[in-house]
Write a structure and sequence with these properties.
This protein has about 100 residues and is α+β, with helices and mostly antiparallel strands. It has one domain: Alpha-Beta Plaits (2-Layer Sandwich), CATH 3.30.70.100. Helices cover about 40% and strands about 30% of the residues.
Length: about 100
């Protein structure tokens, strides 16, 4: 498995997560459509928020990153949020 964390902070990040909170059903549908989808978490922080996506392989993670980028551009581009900090790598342990 492979995981990607996208962390949004700075100008417009809080507003971005206001929009994302209103669109959780759309985000769920989008993320579940990713090939090899395993799990997804969207979390608000004091600075904005982050998302964590787990897929069966790196190709799924890459697909999720592109879909997230497109979704934000289309649905929340007016928030002025900058690009997220992106961390990704292979999963060492996954508990559910």
């Amino acid at each position: 498995m492979h995981t990607v964390v996208r962390r949004y902070s700075g100008k417009g990040a809080k507003e971005l997560f206001d929009v994302l909170e209103q669109r959780t059903a759309d985000i769920e549908e989008l993320m579940r459509s990713v090939n090899g989808f395993v799990g997804y978490t969207l979390m608000r922080t004091s600075e904005g928020g982050l998302s964590v996506t787990v897929c069966q392989d790196k190709a799924g993670v890459d697909e999720s990153v592109q879909k997230a980028k497109d979704f934000v551009a289309k649905n929340a581009g007016s928030t002025g949020a900058g690009a997220p900090e992106v961390l990704e790598g292979p999963v060492l342990l996954h508990l559910k």
